[in-house]
Amino acid sequence: xxxxxxxxxxxxxxxxxxxxxxxxxxxxxxxxxxxxxxxxxxxxxxxxxxxxxxxxxxxxxxxxxxxxxxxxxxxxxxxxxxxxxxxxxxxxxxxxxxxxxxxxxxxxxxxxxxxxxxxxxxxxxxxxxxxxxxxxxxxxxxxxxxxxxxxxxxxxxxxxxxxxxxxxxxxxxxxxxxxxxxxxxxxxxxxxxxxxxxxxxxxxxxxxxxxxxxxxxxxxxxxxxxxxxxxxxxxxxxxxxxxxxxxxxxxxxxxxxxxxxxxxxxxxxxxxxxxxxxxxxxxxxxxxxxxxxxxx
Length: 296
Known about the structure:
Layout: E1 2-6, E2 9-16, H1 19-29, E3 37-41, E4 45-49, E5 56-58, H2 67-76, H3 80-96, E6 101-105, E7 107-109, H4 121-131, H5 137-145, E8 163-164, H6 165-182, E9 186-189, E10 197-202, E11 208-213, E12 216-217, H7 219-232, E13 237-241, H8 247-260, E14 267-271, H9 281-286, E15 289-295
Helix pairs in contact: 3-5, 6-7, 7-8
């Protein structure tokens, strides 16, 4: 296991080769008897267009009977959404048994596969969120079987059941403008004579870590804002199940959140069990799973 100290942020990382090892690593980093609160981000899914209705639908295999939709989702994210949701519910029960106040957090990617043709993407997103009065049926079933309700889900200031990524992106763009004026983030022109700019964070090692490029906020920026929102809601411990392809920007977002915002006492654990088309636990853990911890 590697340890590093960057400013006031302490980081560690280890690799695990099974769900049992993953759970043991989580238990070491987030000991149940030592937690007053915990938020678990699991079940993260993308939105796909349903060709039959033209509306957006959760990219969760268990939610679809149509084989074309199932193949699209399987090839893109595999079992990651349902698997991490069920594991999150199991962990909620375990930690609640120790007396901790545990909530689930559902992060929705509401921008990546939203079509640009036809109706505006903003209209499609708004329609989906307005109709999201309940969790996906398979998620609701997992909660019900555990004797839990939607009250276990942490609401965002945007939606009672979800943290939409687009909302987090817009929030971070506004926050970034303020940090640039304060000199805590740096805004640079990409080329001489060009109007294209990027907003970057200069870390303790002297490396620039880009958060906004040409007006587009990446995963790191939205995760920075999500961590801040969790802290603002009164929670000091956060477990994130992130897709493997998003691990680096998620880790960057967490690191920057703890460095940029004033979040004393915050502890964040990030794990990446699949999310790139893996269809079994053997596939997920055969590639090894990273568990990273950040403390402020």
